[in-house]
Amino acid sequence: MSLPAPQANGVEGEATTTLVNNVETTQITTVSTTTTAQILDANPDDIPGELTIINENSASEMDVDVSHEVHQEEQAATFSIAVDNSFQRASSLPVSLEPKYKFGYVYDDAMLLHSPQVDHPEMPARIVQIFSKLRKDGVLKYMKRIPIRNVKKFEVLLVHSEDHWDKVDAIKHMTREDIILSTSYYEHLSLYVCEMTTKSALLSCGGTIEAALAVARGELSRTFAIVRPPGHHAEPEEHMGFCFLNNVAVATRVVQQLTPIKRILILDWDVHHGNGTQRAFYDDPNVLYISLHRFEGGTFYPCGPFGGLDQNGVDEGVGTSVNIPWPSAGMKDGDYIHAFTKIVMPIAMEFAPELVMVSAGFDAADGDDLGGCHVSPGCYAHMMHMLVSLAGGKCVVALEGGYNVEALSNSCLAVARVLIGDSPPEMPPLVASEDATETVWAVAMQQSKYWNTIDVKSCEPKEEYGDDVVSFPELLKLHRQNYLFETLKMVQVPLFPDLEERFNSQVLCSEDVMDKETLVLLVHQFGNLRVELTGAMTCEPNQELSYLIDSTRQLVSWVESKGFSYVEVNTLPKPLNANTPKRSWQELGRELVTYLWDNYIQLSRAKNVIVIGHGPGCAAVMELLAKRTQNLLRHAKAVCMIVGDTEVPEAPSASREMRDWYMSNTFVAVPTGHRLIIEGRVKSKHGMVVQFDEPRPIKLLSRALPSMAEFIEGKLSPPS
Ligand SMILES: [Zn+2]
């Protein structure tokens, strides 16, 4: 074909509208850009430069065929920034006007051509909606559009048989009558076909290959193939379950053939088992296939035993098929995150893939009736975030299922945001269901045969132990309670019911707290547990090598030797259960300290109160100074802040009197190399800042204690 001279706008063409089979057809004759011409030339079956978009009745709701123009506008906007410079020095000109992208995506309207005659969940609107949402949100500005192409026959044959290729290829020759006559044959395979099915299937697979090659060759770091029809049910010898060619499997094989990358993880979070993909790599030790799916004893689609937890590969590939088969519908975020942290990520880390392919079906999304599960967009973002930590971030996401277009596009957006580097959103407290913990435990027992990092004990459901479970923080508190009772005869302070629920046994005082003249209040978060684990990615501590660092023991001895009374507050609240209203631990800690001041300390006989903030406790002390200013000015003699690596607090600004008092009565200990000192920003508003030759915040309290004690004693008996 002959090409016109390249045009500034890239695409030049004309559109004509005709009626084909009573369906309005818009022919867009494209005078191709260089890229389009190359792609189309690559396949002799194509008519060069001609693209047909069928606007069906249902298509009126779709946001069709804006993609080319939009993309051009985006590119043009980026270019104008680069060249619109009235003053330019030659040496400062960019090497290339081509914007540098790290991320990419594949999308093309031609994949809408595979379209059902009647209502069907796998409809063209799925990808239109995804593309439209990603574009409106602006994430596509950061993603290079990768040109799509047809998959080549030899590429398909890397996974599928020649017969299978012929079967898919033959669909394009079917007449309307053939299609009607074959309806029940295809329905039996959970498929529908139309004249353009072959075309869309070839593009869907070719697009996934291009998305994968762009990453595997290092041109882009992460890509998203927004493609249909999906692929993961397509087996080497059979098309089924809305799938014709196994896009991800073929792309994986092409990457292995054309690039140095050989070891690939395929993670499949579609709600259905990816039988086609698992079968394609069942004996391959270099491709790790992990699937999370509804199984229900083999009764959920695609049915049969193949998605069971004991189907782990054959021959060389034993152990590289990992199935996490949910026993029921209704699985939620906590269940998926539990499976990811206990099974998916440990195995993936041990496998150490060079590339991650995600078979990203979104039919487990909340709102998808076909999947019947409740995974939120935020949860997909978190799973994606974990996956991009693998393989140096080389990650390819390829669309599989997902049939509620709203839930689908929202979930895709959440995933795309993580792909371009955004952090996943904050989540509410997540707890795995009993179904999930049981399943994960069973999978762990199975997979521990093949993977060293899978620790069965750490996956054992807590329910198995019932009331015998005691959490680590609770153990530490009991230990602390015992220690303070033994040394100072300290007792537990009763609290208001709401606070009691979160801080039970975390506030202790010496018996004489109401009577002594001098009272020391320590606000801290007790318990620096140093835990050596028995293996990477497990939760099982090695007990002989684990210990508790108690940096307050010397402080307690000093208080005792001086005959002061003592109140100790641990501001780290007990964990939330799912029904507790969510409040930050900082907010709760501040409320607790103010409560203690009002109900105990200010009512005591103490004339001299020494307030010590340790680490995160410093913030609660500052709040107390600001809220109870007048009272503190009467009773407090000194404030000591043992600051770790965090910001040094500044004197409360609301009251002039408190500000002045704070600046001359506060002792602030910081570790070596604290940034306030390095940057020379120490001011009088910080109080007396002392740097100690101790880089470890945990040891700072003991290291600073002698100077701190001297400072406090000086404030208690000022020189006459
Ligand atoms: Zn599915």
Automatic annotation (TrEMBL):
Domain (Histone deacetylase): residue spans on this chain: 120-418
TM stretches of this protein: none
Keywords: Chromatin regulator, Hydrolase, Nucleus, Repressor, Transcription, Transcription regulation
Keyword Nucleus: yes
GO BP terms, alphabetized: epigenetic regulation of gene expression
Annotated Arb2-like domain residues: 479-715
Name of the featured protein: histone deacetylase
Naturally occurring in which organism (per UniProt): Schizopora paradoxa
Species classification: Eukaryota, Fungi, Dikarya, Basidiomycota, Agaricomycotina
